[in-house]
Amino acid sequence: MSDRNQYYITTPIYYVNDRPHIGHVYSTTVADAVARFKRLRGLDVFFLTGTDEHAAKVADKAAENGVTAQEWADRNAEYFERTFNDLGTTHDDFIRTSQDRHKEGVTRYISQLMETGDVYLGEYEGWYDAGQEEYVPENKAREYEFKSPINGKPLVKKSEKNYFFKLSEYSDALLAHLEQQPDFIVPEARMNELVGRINEGLLDVPMSRTGAAGWGIPVPGDSEHTIYVWIDALFNYLTTVDTEDRRRFWPADVHLLAKDILWFHAAIWPAMLMALGKIPGNEWIRVPRQICSHSFWIAEG
Fold this sequence. Notes:
Elements: E1 6-10, E2 14-15, H1 22-40, E3 44-52, H2 56-64, H3 69-87, E4 93-96, H4 100-116, E5 119-129, E6 134-136, H5 138-143, E7 156-165, H6 171-180, E8 185-186, H7 188-199, E9 205-206, E10 208-210, E11 218-219, E12 222-227, H8 229-234, H9 236-239, E13 254-258, H10 262-277, E14 291-294
Parallel strand pairs: 1-3, 1-13, 2-3, 3-4, 8-14, 13-14
Antiparallel strand pairs: 5-6, 5-7, 7-9, 10-12, 11-12
Helix pairs in contact: 2-3, 6-7
């Protein structure tokens, strides 16, 4: 256990393709209860929530409604803020990934990873889950009968040139971290799930896309590529506190999230932080202390 006085808890940041629903409220309420409890114990708490805006599904939904992606994001981000304020949640900040403070931070981090070679230009062919905006490994696609495990819709075969993050080089470091910190992921079943997937072998991760029609953060030095929404979104936890007065809160004590986004938070995110942390001047950037992965709400059975 840490003896520091700071405590940093986050919710996932929420897609703005539609208004908030009970799942969003659930995660935020649980995080709020923890934040209140830690404040009562005298800790210096920072509680973060917000919205994830650079998704292709956001741009698609905006087009369906005859407005720009930014206008659609603004409209729904306001619904999220209003909902949480009406509930009285005690979040200390509400981050939006379309804000300059976030975009500037992401551009800086990706530039650093390009300089170290942890991010490189390559070519990708594989299965894509459009609903989750996630690439699915061949073995998993076959296991799922080439359908999304979340919504059952067919996976799409895609071939494109992308920038990649060298996730494959962090397998040993991730497994070592999980062994040294057995409560890094709770509950235990989620930890076992992650270890099993890492042991299957890690592939490098596509972290850019093309044809995004200007919606998203451009890859530094290559405006034809936009940083993939999931890479962009994960950095929110860091961009929000990467200031002189807030840096003391890092690393996050708990990332609270639903089990369907565990892989991004418990494998890709720690590996990217390990890559950033080895750069001179970034020694303060470390892996979060814990990932708490809860079940998710479903509709219609």
